[in-house]
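The methods section describes the discrete structure representation at length, but only in general terms. What matters is that the chain and its backbone geometry are given together, residue for residue. For illustration, here is how one protein appears when written out as sequence plus structure tokens:
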Amino acid sequence: MKNKMNALDISLAGMFVALMMIGANITSIVPFMVVGGVPITLQTFFAILAGAILGSRLGSISMMVYAALGLVGAPVFARFSGGFTQILSPTFGFIVSFIITAYIVGKMVEKKKTLNMFIWASLTGMVINYLFGTNWMYFAYKFWAAAPDGFTYKLAWLWMLPPLPKDIILSIGAAFFAYRLEHSVLSRSQFRKINRPV
């Protein structure tokens, strides 16, 4: 794999940054529920796709750019928020987890590009997103954010139940989409010829 990014890499990474912003603010298009301050978004779906389609290196880079863009003040996070103070938000752990998710998903599918691997990689990415994000949220509420009355570790996980079915379905959907794209377009594309996994 090349270390230098070319114009195609930059364009594809930029596309996923834009998709993450859209996924974070899907509420402006389709009203949906916010549970315990956690918006039910499409960000996990796009983070998984970034890893599955772009690979571990470029997928994680695109998620880093998304996080950095939000931290410098661009309104790309959920509810069009942004700024360095977002790092103190109880939900910021989910944003950090997108970088890890894209990297792990990418690493897994780089090793074996079967449908089963795409599905396992996508579900693994979703689990990483939930584990990292929910634990961050719990510790944030315990140590620096104002926790709701009666807040417990169990309650933090109960808040994650409403988006769970959606994320499982979308993760499997991302796996099928990425697999079909890989075997119909990407495997024969200039992108794969330039960006061969190590």
Observations:
- The chain has one domain: 7-194.
